[in-house]
């Protein structure tokens, strides 16, 4: 995966543009899910098609937020304590490696301080929300459909191959 930089111009290795640019090419297939589009490109690759000419484009993007559960003081403090414990153990481990006295004591100290700080920060954050967001959720960026684009020089062959894929009976899982 390549990350673009606003300071670099020109092209990155592999000929990909450095700055965000609209995709180019002709549509050779359209799919309801990313998995189907990925399967189509995989089929093209298996058919000795030059997949470097292919781009999968998500169209009609949506941010989907799935609610996981209700937040309560118990859940917030429990999550804060666990998060703080991990950080505290890590800090205690590092401290124990560099201080020659009491490795176990350093770990225990890190754990206790981590749990206390995790509880404190979780409580402060939750109390400041004043009940405006009493649920936890996970967000995901999804598209309404996924188009497979191909450079014009090989688009016709790509369409023919994907038409063959559409005629194949589905594989039994």
Automatic annotation (TrEMBL):
Pfam families: YflT (PF11181). Keywords: Membrane, Transmembrane, Transmembrane helix. The chain crosses the membrane at residues 76-99, 105-126. Coiled coil: none annotated. InterPro entries: GSP17M-like_dom (IPR025889). Residues 1-20 are annotated as: Disordered. Residues 28-110 form the General stress protein 17M-like domain. This is General stress protein. It comes from Amycolatopsis melonis. The lineage of its organism: Bacteria, Bacillati, Actinomycetota, Actinomycetes, Pseudonocardiales.
């Amino acid at each position: 995966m390549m990350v673009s930089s606003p300071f670099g111009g020109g092209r990155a290795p592999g000929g990909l543009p450095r700055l965000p640019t609209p995709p180019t090419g002709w549509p050779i297939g359209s799919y309801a899910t990313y998995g189907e589009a990925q399967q189509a490109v995989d089929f093209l690759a298996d058919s000795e098609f030059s997949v470097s000419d292919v781009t999968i484009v998500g169209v009609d993007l949506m941010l989907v937020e799935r609610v996981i559960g209700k937040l309560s003081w118990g859940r917030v403090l429990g999550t804060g304590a666990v998060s703080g414990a991990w950080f505290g153990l890590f800090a205690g481990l590092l401290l124990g490696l560099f201080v020659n006295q009491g490795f176990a004591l350093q770990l225990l100290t890190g754990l206790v301080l981590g749990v206390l700080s995790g509880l404190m920060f979780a409580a402060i954050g939750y109390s400041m929300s004043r009940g405006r967001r009493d649920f936890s959720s996970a967000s995901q960026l999804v598209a309404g459909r996924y188009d497979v684009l191909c450079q014009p020089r090989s688009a016709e062959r790509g369409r023919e191959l994907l038409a063959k894929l559409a005629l194949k009976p589905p594989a039994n899982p």
